[in-house]
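Re-running the complex after MR caught last week's input typo. The corrected sequence lines follow. Everything else is unchanged.
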Amino acid sequence: MAAMAMMAMAQPTPEPTPAVPVGAPLTYDDVIGPLFKSRCGMCHGGGSPVMGLDLTTYGGAMKGGQNGAVIIPNDPQGSLLVQKQSGAQPHFGQLNPDELDMVIEWIKNGAPEK
Ligand code: HEC
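Corrected-run output:
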């Protein structure tokens, strides 16, 4: 038993694969854009994006959709995108909590493009 416990302790804790390269600047171009493209782009992208909301370009993401802006720089709680992703009902494309934290942090920082 003791030997097994020691072996278990020697195992490095598996790190979850980070969604983005560690140390990448928290900008649309480096982090948020690729995230939106992979998680949201199949609906909010392309020729006729759902709700007119194209999250696959910086301009589209900042312009918002049918209900206006979805990202309010420096105001994550006031941003419809964060509200949709934090709701009790999961969205059609749901960010995981770590990804949502990154998006909130990015909006807090003023939602920079680069
Ligand atoms: C499978 C398709 C699909 C995916 C993937 C998807 N969405 Fe949506 N999204 C919708 C639909 C349908 C609506 C309209 C209904 C609603 O508001 O819930 C919508 C609405 C929205 C709105 C509100 C737009 C407005 O003007 O009212 C936001 C913000 C939004 N989505 C963000 C996201 C984000 C961020 C992602 C990725 C993490 C994402 N969506 C992924 C289908 C999708």
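None of the earlier attempt is carried over here. Residues 30 and 101 are 16 Å apart (CA to CA). The radius of gyration is 18 Å.
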